[in-house]
Amino acid sequence: MAFDFASFGCMVFDDREMKKRLPDGIYDCLKQSIHEGESLHPEIADTVAEAMMNWAVEKGATHYTHWFQPMTSITAGKHDSFIAPQKDGSVLLHFSGKELIKGEPDASSFPSGGLRNTFEARGYTTWDCTSPAFVRDGTLYIPTAFCSYTGEALDMKTPLLRSMSAISEQALRLIRLFGNTTSRRVNATVGAEQEYFLLDRRMYEKRLDLKICGRTLFGARPPKGQEMDDHYFGRIRLRVAEFMQQLDEELWKLGVTAKTKHNEAAPAQHELAPIFDTVNVSTDHNQLTMEIMRIVAKKNGLACLLHEKPFANVNGSGKHNNWSLSTDDGRNLLDPGKLDPRQVTYENLQFFVVLCAIISAVDKHADLLRMSAAVAGNDHRLGMSEAPPTIISIFLGEQLTSMLERAAQGGGIDSGSCGALFDDVAVLPTLQRDDSDRNRTSPFAFTGNKFEFRTVGSSASIATANYVLNTIVAESLEEFCGRLENPKNSLDDEVRAIIAETMREHGRIIYNGNNYTQEWVEEAKRRGLPNLTNTVDASRAIVSEESIRVLEKYRVLSRVECESRCEIKLENYSKVITIEAKTMLEMVERQYLPAVISYAGRCADSYNALKAAGVENRSLHSLVEKLSQNISEISGAYDALEATLCQLQSPLSTLENAQFCRDRICPLMQKLRLAVDTAEINVAEESWPTPNYTDLLHRV
Ligand code: ADP
Ligand code: MG
């Protein structure tokens, strides 16, 4: 049956419900807070809370939760019921303004990176009224920010909200300069395309590595991988189509604007893209999308993998973070407008200033941006000719790049008004959307009216990438606004000077070629661009003096908050590697090694039986030899990994631990995998203890 679109957002306490259920004055006051990105006025909290509870109860809710995003990739919250016992033994339903605005969960079991002592375990959650509350499975979810007792951010959302204010303030200054007197806020907008894999759940259940680590730690290359390029945009299989439809409907009820769905490049890989929204709503919605993907998959006998690299030699998954800036009345600051070089408008000039702010910000803070996409899983994906390299650069397309270059080279600009910015150009009536924007190799690509940051991994929250972007662009905008508010000559001249300076000092970050090539790695080195090839190095970018300075300047993160995030990233890296290594050891000891040994024994028996019958079979003999060799290699690699893993227990700093995992453990894991994968090819399929790559990738 077709989805009834009247029920879109039916589980969301959205504007329609607020208007219907709140007295006019209170509605206006709440709207004001939402609009200005402020916290709620305490005087109206009780009324709002009661209306919200009544609505939620009608939707089947018995509980509420302060839903927050700790510094992991998932969300959390404890559930409290609305009941208030009465003297006569009955209960009333009660939800106060105080309970809506503030919660006090025990913070001690969430990662704090040293921010919170266990004896001061209390944390606070506060309602983020700019992201709507919703009902799910009998609980009213209230999106919140999560802080320690002493006010430090213990979550992903707090820095995101702070960065949104920072960029709004600077971007407002800019648009005022170019004649916009009416917009009241500038929002960072984001649409996050989510890639994922779907597997048959029975296959998935048989793989310890998938269940524990979310990726295969073993598996020989299948005869058919993605060589045929026949999956991308291909026909969606029935089972997957049913999953996608249920997913869409679940998301729509929660107000998530799931828009596009298609098969991705790898077999069993798919993508969902929503319509963009303000970045904190997009962040919440992306978290919901990931959670609901997993649940709907399970209900359908499928397993959804959100890991960045579930299969070796098969494309991994990312999250394309489409980012732009938009006024509250819907004007996109990255829309170039009609570009006629002979008649440059204010809108065009403003576009070029924003563009320069982004170019300069990304070049200055490339390492911080790289940090924002650093998780252990992404190390297997970045730089593997399937996803952007670990070098951050910007793709603008030839046309826009040459316009900037020409403008930078000078020529006359009419003083006073908007004159010719590009004096020597042939007519370019409108900026053609550059076909090469289908250049999928760039980490940070301009795609017509937004930037697409493709480095972000599929399992991560998009919050970090976006608070970094918002903050670093706010800084460049502030610098440019300072200049444009007091131009030496005309506004036009100042814009040209800004373009010229940006191209001179930061033009090195622009690269329109193929990012997958070795030449680019070398060229980037010549240009002096950072190349942080792994999570350990990239994580440390958040504690460089330069990063701390900019994050502190806009009160997005304090020094200790930066340090805690670095600590958590490194700790998480070591944990992931250790768990993967232990899972490998267990699978080898209990599954693979016994399987190879027993199969080798069977082959040896067959060889002996033939021999007893008077047949000397050399091929069978050499198979037995090969299998015996496999057993030795697996055992050797197993012992080496196990012994090295033990050394990790000695007291090392978080950084040393992470480096040890990267430099000592990872290579040994590689070696063990290779030994097992080599054996897999020699062993009969029915004697292999786990589903193979073909079973996993081609069975849905
Ligand atoms: P493409 O397919 O070329 O990547 P789409 O138009 O399909 O481009 O957009 C991809 C994603 O970008 C979608 O999630 C879309 O909502 C988002 N997007 C489009 N415009 C903006 C914008 N102004 N700000 C943020 N995201 C945007
Ligand atoms: Mg896209």
Give a verbal description of the structure:
- The structure is a single chain.
- By secondary structure, the chain is an alpha+beta fold.
- 47% of the residues lie in helices and 12% in strands.
- It has 21 helices and 17 strands.
- Strands 9, 10, 11, 12, 13, 14, 15, 16 and 17 form a 9-stranded mixed beta sheet that branches. Strands 1, 2, 5, 6, 7 and 8 form a 6-stranded mixed beta sheet that branches.
- Strand 7 and strand 8 (139-148) form a beta hairpin.
- The longest helix is centred in the last third of the chain and has 54 residues, at 559-612.
- The protein is globular.
- Mean pLDDT is 92; it is low at 411-420 and 423-430.
- Bound molecules: adenosine-5'-diphosphate and magnesium ion (MG).
Question: What are its keywords?
Answer:
21 helices, alpha+beta, globular, binds adenosine-5'-diphosphate, 6-stranded mixed beta sheet, 17 strands, binds magnesium ion, 700 residues, single chain
**How many β strands by DSSP?**
17
Largest sheet: 9 strands, mixed
Q: How many helical elements?
A: 21
CA-to-CA gap between the ends?
Answer: 23 Å
Shape: globular
Structural class: alpha+beta
Mean pLDDT: 92
Extract low-pLDDT stretches.
411-420, 423-430
The percent range for strand residues is 5-15%
Q: Give Rg in angstroms.
A: 28 Å
Helix content: 40-55%
- Any ligands, ions or cofactors bound here, and which? adenosine-5'-diphosphate, magnesium ion
